[in-house]
Amino acid sequence: MSGEHTPVAVVTGAGSGIGAATSHRLATEGYHVVLAARRTDRIEAVAKEIRAQGGSAEPHPLDVTDRDAVTALAASVERCDVLINNAGGAIGTEQVEDADSADWRTMYETNVLGSLHVSQALLPKLIDSGDGTIVVISSTAGFTVYEGGGGYSAAKHGQHALAGTLRMELCGRPVRVVEVAPGMVHTEEFSLNRYRGDEKKSAAVYAGVDQPLLAEDIADVVSWAVTRPSHVNVDFLVVRPRAQAAQHKVHRLEQPR
Ligand code: 8X3
Predict the structure, then answer these.
(1) How far away, in angstroms, is 79 Cα from ligand 1 center?
(2) Would you list the DSSP string of 182-196?
(3) How far is the CA of 184 from the centre of ligand 1 (A)?
(4) Is 184 close to ligand 1, i.e. is its CB under 6 Å away?
(5) 247 occurs within a structural domain
(6) What is the CATH number of the domain that holds 172?
(7) Has residue 213 been placed in a domain?
(8) Fewer Cβ atoms within 10 Å of its own Cβ: the N or the C terminal residue of the chain?
(9) Bridging pattern class, strands 32-37 and 56-61
(10) 93 Cβ below 6 A of ligand 1
(11) 58 lies in which domain range?
(12) Would you say 230 and 129 are in contact if contact means Cβ atoms under 8 Å apart?
């Protein structure tokens, strides 16, 4: 990080969960953080919290699937040193035979095309920074599949392909591409969105799990990867809680009936 200017980090999906936690963390690291997400009230609240803690942040309402809006975001930032592609998520748990293609399309558009739009739009500024970093927050679903997770897994595989391709294509230019693939992270909304607002089913995902990851754990890992010396590209990090050895291998403490 150069001392001549305040470095700028753009974080998508910054209104909650991993995006909000990463924004906080990067602000602590000295970045001016551009908080991009659809819900204005959320990003305004996160910006206020960051400023109250002495950090620098600005909210920028954004739907990553809207290419014109993404272009406008890129034009509005003076510089960009770090981009965190975090917007996305899962919708539905239907098996392939019952899945609604509209859900699959939405997941592809937010996770994959959203990352594509924002990365493309900010790439010139990331290159101009002389030391840019693109982080893609994918998922363990980006390299494995499981029942009921087809659409999400397909989208996350797409994001994984995007990150890997971009790293190769940018080789020789001053931009690192880092992919962080979280496993089970207990955030306010991830599971709730996946289960279409069903709080009981959403809570059951984490039932009995001794310390699922929290958004702050992922923010910690992202911050570590971003703050390595410029020549160190952390390609791909898989991060799970100790209680989750693999997608289906989750240790649960006995629950009172
Ligand atoms: C979230 C991980 O296990 O719910 O990206 O697919 S999982």
Answers:
(1) 33
(2) E-SB--SSHHHHHTT
(3) 6
(4) yes
(5) no
(6) 3.40.50.720
(7) yes
(8) C
(9) parallel
(10) no
(11) 8-242
(12) no
